[in-house]
Amino acid sequence: MNGGPMEPRPILEEDLHAYVDDALDASRRRQVQAYLDQHPEAARQVKAYAAQRQHLRAVLAPIAEEPLPPSLNLARMVQAHEQRERRDEHLPRPPWGWRMAAGVVFALGLGTSAGWFLRGHLPGDGDTGIAALAQEATHSYAVYASDTERPVEMGPTQRTELVDWISARLGRKVAIPDLGADGYHFIGGRLVMTAHGPAGLFMYQDADGTRLTLTVRPMAVDQDTPLMRPINGPVGGYAWADRGLGYGMVGASKAEVLHPLADEMRRQIGVSLRG
Amino acid sequence: MNDLLLVVEPLIPALRRYARALLRDREIADELVQDCLERVISRWGQRRNADDTRQWVFAILHNLAINRLRQRTRRGLHLAMEDIDEADLSTPAPQEHSVTHSELMRALDLLPEEQRAVLLLVSVEDMSYADAAKTLDIPIGTVMSRLSRARQRVHRMLDGVDPMPSTSVPDIDNPTRPALRRLK
């Protein structure tokens, strides 16, 4: 502090960009202007960047002026969403642990010895339909999502092989939804055993390491239940069936977080399997 | 949901512009915007701060677009440069521009996607540096350095200092990016 007039802060390259983008306050702008007046090379650069900015805007402006296609009619999309919500609210939601006598009989008929063994030991396992699937999905989550060593058998780079493997074992084409845009990255999957035969297990993880699993297997009953049944318990999730394949999504988050994720999975699977 | 329509509908033209400039494919871009709007509708209640809606919506779209670009890269496909609307490219450049629109768009395509995103949000979508940082979920210093590199690169390419490659050349900043074919 020599008491002389304060030197202006040095000009940063960032200031030149902020000058081009008109993002400087008035006093800094004057300082940058004064600098440019004395430095023709920097002034030329700033002029070129400003021209580039203008040019880019001019080239891309017409896109924003095009009339919107019907697929981007937001009012209609909101309306469709509200209709779906209303329909979902009116349908009954059986509580978790719900049993169906006919289902048990059916399962006895089907049961292999391995199936039998498990059925006797899994608490609350008493249905073959969507409720059983929900429970199996919860068990698979409990076993594999907590595994720090080897939660999956095939990683994200082997996605295609995994799809082929699971599709071959289930005898049905399966699809792996992409939740990257929701912050959940696909980390791989494996084949798992359920009381109703083999199932595919796909796992996702967010930046905090929170995991989410999707269990998929063919459905002998409840082949098409587009309504998602909430899975309640220590972990949450949703189960649904679509064209003979049942899906159970499980995660340790609240319903508000899981519901849109399940919606998104259901939507993507619908798109990719229907083509 | 009424506020959703009021706030989000006016953003749609800009969302389309951003998606199309990033992906350079009208159909895929519009598909992504539709996807983005569906997510906005189903998560409207989860927004933390109503003042950030624009960044929140752009962030959803940006993440969808980046995923799409990465899928394209994973599958080793070339960007469909030939599919670009000829009308967009053949528009005569205004007098003050010494480079043509197609040259500018090619230079834009040759930028690594993260630099392109910053350049578009700031220069075209008029986002402040802070808003761009929020949208892309990166520090503001990273926004500044990407913006600076993007402008330098585009300038050098268009000025002929750094001639645009005439054949497929891997991008040195981002070796996983697919090589681009030259426009005819």
Question: What are the SSEs and their pairings?
Answer:
The complex is a heterodimer of chains A (275) and B (184).
Chain A: H1 13-20, H2 26-38, H3 40-65, H4 74-90, H5 101-110, H6 113-121, H7 130-145, H8 159-170, E1 185-194, E2 197-205, E3 211-218, E4 225-231, E5 236-242, E6 245-251, H9 255-274
Chain B: H1 2-8, H2 12-23, H3 26-42, H4 53-74, H5 86-90, H6 101-109, H7 113-124, H8 129-136, H9 140-159
Description:
The complex is a heterodimer of chains A (275) and B (184). Chain A contains 9 helices and 6 strands. Chain A is an alpha+beta fold and 275 residues long. Chain A folds into 2 domains: 13-65, no CATH class; 132-274, Protein Transport Mog1p, Chain A (3-Layer(aba) Sandwich). The model of chain A is unreliable at 92-126 (pLDDT under 50). Chain B has 184 residues and is mainly alpha-helical. Chain B has helices at residues 2-8, 12-23, 26-42, 53-74, 86-90, 101-109, 113-124, 129-136, 140-159. Chain B is globular and about 50 Å long. The termini of chain B are far apart. At the A-B interface, helix 1, helix 3, helix 4 and helix 9 of A face helix 1, helix 2, helix 3, helix 4 and helix 6 of B.
Give the chain pair forming the largest contact, with residue counts: A-B, 47 and 55 residues
CATH architecture of the largest domain in chain B: Orthogonal Bundle
Largest sheet report of chain B? none
Structural class of chain B: mainly alpha
